[in-house]
Amino acid sequence: MCALRCLQSMPSVRCLQNTSVMEDQNEDESPKKNTLWQISNGTSSVIVSRKRPSEGNYEKEKDLCIKYFDQWSESDQVEFVEHLISRMCHYQHGHINSYLKPMLQRDFITALPEQGLDHIAENILSYLDARSLCAAELVCKEWQRVISEGMLWKKLIERMVRTDPLWKGLSERRCWDQYLFKNRPTDGPPNSFYRSLYPKIIQDIETIESNWRCGRHNLQRIQCRSENSKGVYCLQYDDEKIISGLRDNSIKIWDKTGLECLKVLTGHTGSVLCLQYDERVIVTGSSDSTVRVWDVNTGE
């Protein structure tokens, strides 16, 4: 009785032999023969498809085709494959495309060093910003090696110093500019130093900007004592001095620490509108349509 109940509860299975299953084919293509199995439990049924087993001749013919294929030139092989693809249906094209996609993908960052072209891989990754460079380090060990040996964090910091005045000023004030722009990698610290330096610089910049926004800074004033115009049109400063161009036609040099006036340069007959200086000279432009060059030390 138990065996009888099991047989009664099993779904009925019926094989539909030689049933034609139509694919999305062209009109000149013949339907493929599959075996359809219909499984029913009395209330519902499901039809599943099973491919017909390959015949023995197919394996022999396939091996023979591969043998001939291997003997042909590359151009002949390509032409033969193109001819085969042109005779396939849309479904087969999609299947081949899925098969080829992973084969056509290339990790060129890993492949370039294998060809002795490390410098090209480094040059490509050197265009990344900090966030992308962090992500690139996590791709694989080879990418991390290219970034490390290429000193790409150092190059990123150097690029920021060259293009951003704030970075340049911080590099000089915090004295980490001494580690930049070295001709030989052996002249400076390893990549890990610059990898840890970058977030510290970002934090420093965020702190400075926050202090300015919130008023957390010490404000010092310099009274220029310009009796006539009482106006400052331009200035430049360094760690030791401040040089200002005034509306009263004069240029004044101030001590940055004591805020005392060290020199007054006179000679322009119009307001001093712009100035620039280095260790040796001061160059000023005035509304009197003249440009004057002054000696920084003597004031002449």
Automatic annotation (TrEMBL):
Keywords: Repeat, Ubl conjugation pathway, WD repeat. The keyword Signal does not apply. It comes from the Eukaryota. Residues 118-156 form the F-box domain. GO terms for molecular function: protein dimerization activity. WD repeats lie at residues 225-255, 265-300. PANTHER family: F-BOX AND WD REPEAT DOMAIN-CONTAINING 11-B (PTHR14604:SF6), WD40 REPEAT PF20 (PTHR14604). This is F-box domain-containing protein.
